[in-house]
What we know:
The protein has 254 residues and is an all-alpha fold.
Amino acid sequence: xxKKFLTFFCPLCWRLRxxxxxxxxxxxxxxxxxxxxxxxxxxxxxxxxxxxxxxPLPINSTFNYLVNKNISPETVNRAITSSTNNxxxxxxxxxxxxxxxxxxxxxxxxxxxxxxxxxxxIVSWGSxxxxxxxxxxxxVQLWEKTCHSLTATEQRKLFLYLVARIETEKKTLSGPSxxxxxxxxxxxxxxxxxxxxxxxxxxxxxxxxxxxxRIAKEHNVSRQTIHKKWNKFxxxxxxxxxxxxxxxxxxxxx
Length: 254
Ligand SMILES: [Zn+2]
């Protein structure tokens, strides 16, 4: 039974896949072309985890491994089921939410603005959750389509799978990128950086070696300072180019 619920999801993330189509194993973000940047990035992230296990896990099982390593949706479902059996009745969205907030804190925090009393079933609650995480209408449609083939109890379980997977994504895989600073976060001396970029481009174009001492003198700073800035630029070329470009655009607009 566990397997059946898993097949509704993209093996690399929390989004649903088209389970009627055997050719589309992945969600809209990670599907063909499998050479897409999002696909490659996610594979790299999961590869690290997969290889750290002995024996290494298959990449397509690794996301699920992370989900269960945190708290399996089956565990939460059992907790909810046993509480309804004790009371002998239906369970409201608010009650389900109290379980979810207890087990999946990141998810609870990130969706606290969603008023669950607005939804009279778990399907529309799920659609609102998917929209809250900025997925396109396609994932919402897949969610609704999948739910329609399930009983109410199964829908609740599928919802818990969705929540558990979003929790894993947000908690484990959405950390700050290790690929370098974000454009908005770097503070630089724009003039010096512009000189470095020009020198770098000249070096590439004409094969002339960059003269860091000259640039240091031009800007009245030590050679070490320039050297440090140069290394930073080489490491995160794209980011610095963007910062310079943005600042130029800003000047144009003011
Ligand atoms: Zn995916």
